[in-house]
Structure formats: C-alpha cells, structure tokens
Amino acid sequence: MRRLRNVKIVATLGPASNDHDTIRALYLAGADVFRLNMSHGTHEDIRARHAIIRKVEAELGRPIGILADLQGPKLRVGTFTDDEAELVEGAAFRLDLNEAPGDASRVRLPHPEIFAALEPGAALLINDGKIRLSVETCGPDFANCTVVVGGTISNRKGVNVPDVVLPLAALSDKDRTDLDFVCDLGVDWLALSFVQRPEDVTEARALVRGRAAIMSKIEKPAGVRAFDAILAVSDGIMVARGDLGVECPVQNVPPIQKRLVRDARAAAKPVIVATQMLESMIESPVPTRAEVSDVANAIYEGADAVMLSAESAAGDYPVEAVTTMNNVAIEVEGDITYREVIEASRRANRTTVAEGIVAAAREIAETADIRAICCFSESGTTVALTARERPRVPIIALTSVQATARRLALTWGTHCVIVGDVDRFKTAVVQAVRAARRDGFAEASDQIVVTAGIPFNVPGTTNILRVAPCEERLIYRSEPE
To answer: Which parts of 176-281 are beta strand (E)?
Structure first.
C-alpha cells in the first residue's frame, strides 16, 4: 500500500465517516492518520471509531496513526433575554458576572479569570471575531467596553482575548477525563488545545505518562510568541489556523504558518497545517482554486501533513475531499519547483553521529542510483531526522515497535513496516531489502541505503550506513555478520 507522495493526510472522523466502509475508503483514498475530535461525540462514539480504525489497519496490514484532539477550555458569553441582541458601533457594552439574561447593554461573561487578566485597551472578540469590543475600564468582575465592530450577538457565542496571556490551564476538567480515556484506549498522538506557554505541555505530559506523543496546537498569539519554548517540549506541532486567524490580523497568518512549519522541521518534529483547507467541499464535490492553492502552499512549505476537519467529519463528500488532497499533493511534489523550494529551506544543524549518518544517507541517495533509504529505529528518532532532510527518495521505517510505526504515520515521506526483532546487521539488511521489494520501492537490480545502530534495539545508537544491493544472494556474499 505505497503512497505516491511524501506529505501525509490527516482526516477527521465524525457523523459523515462513522462506519467501517467509509473509514476504509478514506484510508484507501489517501488518509494516513485519523483525527478523533473530543469536542464532538461521547466516549462510546470515540471508542467505536477507534475500534473500526484498528480493524481496517488489521485488514490492510498497514500501521495507521490515530490523533485525539482535546477540546481545551471554551470561553463563552451567557444568554440573552431574546436569545440575541444587536450591538451598534460606538455604543457602550458591559461584560460582568451577573447571572441575569443579557441585552444590548450587557451580558454575563462567566470567566472571572478573564477579568483578572484584562487591561484598558485590550480587545475582546466575540463569535469568531465578527464582533469586536475594546475595554475602557475593568475590574475583578466587570469590563466596560466600547463596540468597535457591531453586529448580532446571541447565546453562548465564543470569546477570544488576543492581547493577553490568560491565567487558564490548557486542560479543563473535561480534557483531563478525555485524556485518560483516549490514552488508555490507545491513541498515538494527543493534540493539546489552548497552548499558551511551555508549562501547558509539561503539565499534559505528566498526565499522559508516555502513553501517547503530544502535539501542541498553536492557535493563540501567546503561543506564537512562546513558540520556541513550546516546540522544545512538544513532540509535534499543529498550526491551527482557525482561532489563530481570529485573534491575529489575517495578513499575519501566512508568515506565521511559514515560520512555524520551518522551525518545526528544523527541530525534526512533525507539523500539521490545519483548518479550512478544502472548506467548500463540505457541500461541494469540487474545491475552489484558492483552496487548492492553500493546500499546495502548505506542501511547498514542507509541512509533514495537511488536515481535513469538517470536510471529512461532517461533509457530503468525505472521500472526495481526501482524494482531492491526495491528487494535489502528488501534482505539487512532481513539480521541479517543489524540490527547489524544499532543498533551499533545508537547515544544516548536525551535531550528533545520528544526524551525520542521515545527512550522508540523503547525499548518497541523491548522487547515486538509490531507490530508498531504509531506517531501523525503535524510538523513531532516526526516521524523524531522516525526514528532516527531505530526501528525494522514499524513507522506509523498519521497527519492531508497533506504537512507533503508528506514530511515524504522521512523518513526512515515511513508509512504516513492522518487522521482528533484529540482532545482526546482515539480518537487518535482508529485512530492508525484502520490505523495499515487497512494497514496490525497488527491484532486484536496484540499490538501497540502510541505516541502523549497533548494538541493535537500543534507542539513539544509529551509527552505521550501508549501500546494499537488492538481490539477497549478493548480500550474503558481501555483508559482515
């Protein structure tokens, strides 16, 4: 089941993609990782989707990654006497803790932690930024504001506070319950919402206890400002452009996306570009040209993965959306400009033996007639370093650890193969050759590069590189024990 592209596709599951046949069709169309959105559905819904994914995985014999996305704290206004009110530009509007229903002059904001952080001049955005307020005066239980951008405000609309770091934990009580549930269930990645500071990640890591890799969602200006520190303690990054596009000026989002993708790649950590990539395909079988360009730009930037949200979870054309994304990726990666951009953005930051080995593997593959780079890795670290190099040939990740193979399903250019334990280098080379030939990467007359670590099965020991022929009898003649 070889993909003809390097970038990975993450597909969100939901009401439109709940059954076995649809999930199987999504994988066959190109989905590499499935996202379980903890904002929607009960634990039993999530358990059922997880079980179907693992059944499809067993049927197809390919490791499939599962990403559970925590909801994070939700900040919302209260209710209104008539369910809604009309705010006029220039008018005064008050937010407070009064439980009485609101009107055109005030409404409850049941989050004292927001009042504690506000200062005069701060902006408050309501309903995805459609309404904008400016704080004039504030206290521990109120904020008197001026309406900068008016419109209709209705019950329980979301609130964004872009100008301050809120004294809120990234994990709500619901998130803590969900975290334990999905980690016990057996997901591979845990996406953490509302990340503002590195401490948000370290708190979650203590609760995860090694049961899943942690992906930090960057969706707030505070997260962008603290990105270097957040990246250092995260296993992966999601550029969550939904709230980011609300809280930042829209013209700032593309350069932020580009910087975050490049920095994550330099750190050898997978990065997903998410939100509204093919939004029109919720209702249409064909995307807009602008959406196709958006997907293409993320691929040109070197993102590890692009993600579908409502398109595959609740849309009318989930399989078609994945197919479209797959086709765009194949076309972009076949463009000569793609290689020029990817190679021009490669950062040389090699300080370890393993980093030198994978850099040499990429250079050999690009100067000789090499069909694939085969990496033996227990932890997946060497595979991630190889993917950072963005080689021109496929990466075959061979591991005896099923969890590692599933987690690497998110990593750029990686074809994961689960193998038995290996204790000799000759055996490793034979395993690599068999995988390359069986899965259509090489023929008997071809060569591959094999990287591994001696002693075997010890993480972090990658220290050997071999150019190997793909005919087994030649291996047995030339390969040392």
So the answer is: 189-192, 213-218, 236-240, 271-274
